[in-house]
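Mods, move this if it's the wrong board.
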Amino acid sequence: MEPKESLQDLFDREDEVRKLREGLSRERLILVLGLRRIGKSSLVLATLSSTGQPFVYVDVRRAYDDVSRRVPAERLYEELRSSLLRLSVRDRVLEALRRMGISLEYPVKVRVPAEEVRDSIAKAFDALNELGRVAVVLDEAQYLRYSTVGLRPLLAHVYDRLRNVTLIMTGSEVGLLHDFIGIDDPSSPLYGRDGLTIELRPFDEERSRQFLRRGFEELGVKVDERVIGRAVEELDGVVGWLVYFGRLYLEKGADAIDEVKEMGAKLVKKELEEALSRSPYYAHIMRAVATLGRARWRNVVDYVTAQLGRRVTNATIARDLRNLVKMGFIEKVNDEYRVADPIVRYAVLKGL
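Not the wrong board. Structure tokens:
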């Protein structure tokens, strides 16, 4: 069976659910964007499960290799193969693939040419198209930038030719996902393809309070409003951290807030280390923005200069700031930069 989520588990996402449902009936490409742990996957899976429409779910992160920093062709195919085998209508897919000379019976255990994998993936999409309306979810699709398969021409073919297939791409590194698709790149095979974009934002203060109150009410637990207020202030409306706090509160009480920050920092450490290793200046820029809270361009330049004891060119700082925004670690509001996730900021300040 496909991964399941329930609409009952979503809070205050009615507009996003409605847009996604409407998009499934008319769009060829849907982008669901937002911070890590903001609830993108839950929104997509819950909505699709509620429609009864068959769908394939591929978590591209699982195919990413930390050592090579690539998405090997055979790993990506294996994730797709596993999802196809979980389909409720798998027999129809398997029969269509057999007619095309493809068998999903055995996993890929050896390295095979990327062209062969791409051909198998293309035939899998062709088989799905025979089912009628079907969605293919590529979760954290920005990692496809590192694929050894070269998927953009294939995805353009799916968009143009396979009228029954809707592509749903989620992305927490919004700028990198846009780069992969080639929204502003006329040379990209996906350039100019229209689609629906749904952006999930963190809850504001009042909605965060309501979210926690409702969760505790369902558990029959009474929580001091001051504790809820502090949790909202320090976790800043990121759904994943609020859920984490709610679960830990049953065991830790008010100390759950600090526990979320400590354990959350350890969870994001790997994400930070992998991302910050791509430039010698990323860590200094992140520390500058995290320390200052809200920083203007000149503040960042001055802080990094003071840290290093030497000047870094304006062009280098500008490039790396843009890249950190693309990766979703920093956001720019008007002329100010801030760390988008409070736990990431906490981890940076702790030096993790």
